[in-house]
Amino acid sequence: MADRSLRGMSIGAKSMESDEGVDFAPRFQAYYDCPNGHTIILPFATDAEVPPVWECRCGEEALLRDAEQPEPKAVKPQRTHWDMLLERRTVAELQDLLDERLELLRAGKLRRGA
Ligand SMILES: [Zn+2]
Asked: What's the gap in Å between 52 CA and the centre of ligand 1?
């Protein structure tokens, strides 16, 4: 009886056909773990921004499983002029430049502000 009623419908085959040629965006499933033991599985496009938390049906905040912990941004120390200078010149080079200027200064060839 059951067999006869299903015969000829070929639902599977038809839906397979209709899916053919359809280019699905790549997806993955994100798992959220609720503190109350619930698991939420949500499909996301691979290029979608997956929220780190999702509100569970029980109202708790479920956490994205294996969520990449956002790395604390490396706080760059404020660069001083001296730091910038050292990025372009080595101390040895600066010493040379200083010596050169001092030599000119002592020789009276360097005027103030020149
Ligand atoms: Zn829950």
From this structure: 15
